[in-house]
């Protein structure tokens, strides 16, 4: 089964390479700025920041900001600062998330909190958030500030909601998607929307990029949820089953629970609500997901959001940046293969 | 010994009443806005926010914003939003501080973290910070945004510094004052400075209010440090000795340590670095502070900062707001009596 998006009207393929290529020169400046703004006389701050940077992911969010600005013909400097702000917001969220989730590993590496403690993670997260706002203010676009500050509040609200809903098997698919919308999609949406904003594009262009980012974020998170039950630890650099062991109720769990009989429902409640989540339970969880097609159903939903993202960016003028934004949608979904 | 500031050229007395009076009508709107912006469909958020509001302190920081705007002839609405932002920044800091310090009580009431847990405190703090930035952005003053976002980064940087320096008796007075400057004085300074900024006042007026706020913040914190060893639990609504039991190295500790003999120095290291901080140790700590005049010396420094604050606001045109800003300086220092 191919999971590539069956849109086909534009010649793109599932790859992050075009995005790396178009954003490369500006991302070099983003990375410099990140290092500079993570600098401090307080040793602990650059120490933790460098740990985060070196264990770093793909920097997908700041690349979206760069590419979406370029796709709208932007030629100034502000996209670099905004991209660095977006990455700092993301990093601050990760630091606080790891404290809240009591995570010991992220992408197969020790989390900051296991090395430096919860206290440092909370405070360095706050520092990075403060630096993010400083950079945004320097850009001087009130519209961009509005978008990013709103995202910041929405992300935190989603996290609190997840905390209160966590470990309750009564969480519905709609409930869960509302959390994903807030926790993950809001920052993707903001990262993409500030591009046309600083390029001086119109309301329709802003809306299109916002929809693109949001849909991509939703697809991205659902694929992540599947990978946590299906990817191999070596490939992903992330221990399969992390979500399960942390009692995180994600879409595959919800769908398997809803399709299960009474005995299976009891298993899920024991596992997610009462922490019976050892290796044996994980194996059973995976087996139930496969039996009820919960992973495939999650992928189907991810693909549908991916198609929405693809459609939202398809009307952009044909440029390498446009094609990069399209290819990365397919890439994000194809990760699951 | 009177601790009132011996300036005398203006007829003010140590009181918070004039500040409460001049800021009263606007503070009613600030409080409404705080409740509205702490609202959320996520139940936990208003629950925690109401706890913080009901256990609330004097709202000194937002009152400074209101009074300093009025003292510069401001007649618009922006000071209300900025004052609410300042209070949210402060509240978010308190929530995170309690997690970092593992505090169980604040002003004699259970802290949010003891009721709702560290996780909720971290995330609700993030939410309030996000809402603070949203309100600032709505005001639309880039200068005010710059001041407040810089303060946000400085506060967090100071907290991290304190974390790395915490429990080291080698902390010098200068080290400690740098932390107070960042942790406490930066927000007082920002709260006061945004007043003239939105009133369209000049650079000299901004600088004067910044100095006023900073000096008041320094004085305020030093008096707090003294109260923690000298105030009575009933009067202050705060358990005397909290700082000591949390191993917080404040100025009275530093001064007593520096003046102590080898045996006393060993006592302080045991207490602050190794957690021998029971009731008996606290009694000895107080006794050593009195023997070496550490509390009086701290008050002397607080008074000197108070005089600087008083001087910075003295040149304002004579209005009830100006007098309120002056009276509250004396009030902050007189708390120690």
From TrEMBL, chains A, B:
<dbReference type="GO" id="GO:0106350">
    <property type="term" value="F:all-trans-octaprenyl-diphosphate synthase activity"/>
</dbReference>
<dbReference type="GO" id="GO:0046872">
    <property type="term" value="F:metal ion binding"/>
</dbReference>
<dbReference type="InterPro" id="IPR008949">
    <property type="entry name" value="Isoprenoid_synthase_dom_sf"/>
</dbReference>
<dbReference type="Pfam" id="PF00348">
    <property type="entry name" value="polyprenyl_synt"/>
</dbReference>
<dbReference type="InterPro" id="IPR033749">
    <property type="entry name" value="Polyprenyl_synt_CS"/>
</dbReference>
<keyword id="KW-0460">Magnesium</keyword>
<comment type="similarity">
    <text>Belongs to the FPP/GGPP synthase family.</text>
</comment>
<dbReference type="InterPro" id="IPR000092">
    <property type="entry name" value="Polyprenyl_synt"/>
</dbReference>
<keyword id="KW-0479">Metal-binding</keyword>
<dbReference type="GO" id="GO:0008299">
    <property type="term" value="P:isoprenoid biosynthetic process"/>
</dbReference>
<comment type="function">
    <text>Supplies octaprenyl diphosphate, the precursor for the side chain of the isoprenoid quinones ubiquinone and menaquinone.</text>
</comment>
<protein>
    <recommendedName>
        <fullName>Octaprenyl diphosphate synthase</fullName>
        <ecNumber>2.5.1.90</ecNumber>
    </recommendedName>
</protein>
<keyword id="KW-0808">Transferase</keyword>
């Amino acid at each position: 089964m191919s999971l590539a998006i069956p849109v086909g009207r534009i010649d793109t393929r599932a790859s992050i390479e075009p995005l790396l290529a178009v954003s490369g020169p500006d991302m070099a400046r983003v990375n410099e700025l990140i290092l500079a703004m993570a600098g401090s006389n307080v040793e602990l701050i650059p120490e933790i920041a460098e740990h985060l940077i070196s264990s770093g992911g793909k920097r997908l969010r700041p690349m979206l900001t760069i590419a979406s600005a370029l796709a709208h013909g932007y030629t100034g400097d502000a996209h670099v600062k905004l991209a660095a702000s977006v990455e700092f917001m993301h990093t601050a969220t990760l630091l606080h998330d790891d404290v809240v989730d009591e995570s010991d590993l992220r992408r197969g590496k020790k989390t900051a909190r296991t090395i430096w403690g919860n206290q440092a993670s909370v405070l360095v997260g706050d520092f990075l958030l403060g630096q993010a706002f400083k950079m945004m203010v320097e850009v001087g676009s009130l519209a961009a500030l509005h978008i990013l500050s709103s995202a910041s509040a929405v992300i935190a609200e989603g996290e609190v909601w997840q905390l209160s809903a966590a470990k309750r098997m009564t969480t519905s698919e709609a409930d869960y998607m509302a959390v994903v919308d807030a926790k993950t999609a809001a920052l993707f949406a903001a990262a993409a929307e500030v591009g046309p904003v600083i390029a001086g594009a119109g309301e329709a262009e802003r809306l299109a990029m916002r929809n693109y980012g949001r849909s991509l974020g939703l697809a991205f998170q659902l694929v992540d949820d599947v990978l946590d039950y299906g990817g191999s630890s070596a490939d992903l650099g992330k221990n399969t089953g992390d979500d399960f062991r942390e009692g995180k109720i994600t879409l595959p769990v919800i769908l398997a629970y809803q399709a299960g009989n009474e005995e299976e429902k009891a298993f899920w409640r024991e596992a997610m609500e009462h922490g019976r989540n050892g290796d044996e339970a994980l194996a059973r969880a995976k087996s139930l997901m496969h039996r009820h097609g919960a992973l495939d159903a999650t992928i189907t939903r991810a693909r549908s959001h991916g198609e929405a993202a693809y459609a939202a960016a398809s009307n952009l003028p044909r440029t390498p940046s446009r094609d990069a934004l399209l290819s990365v949608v397919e890439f994000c979904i194809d990760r699951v293969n």
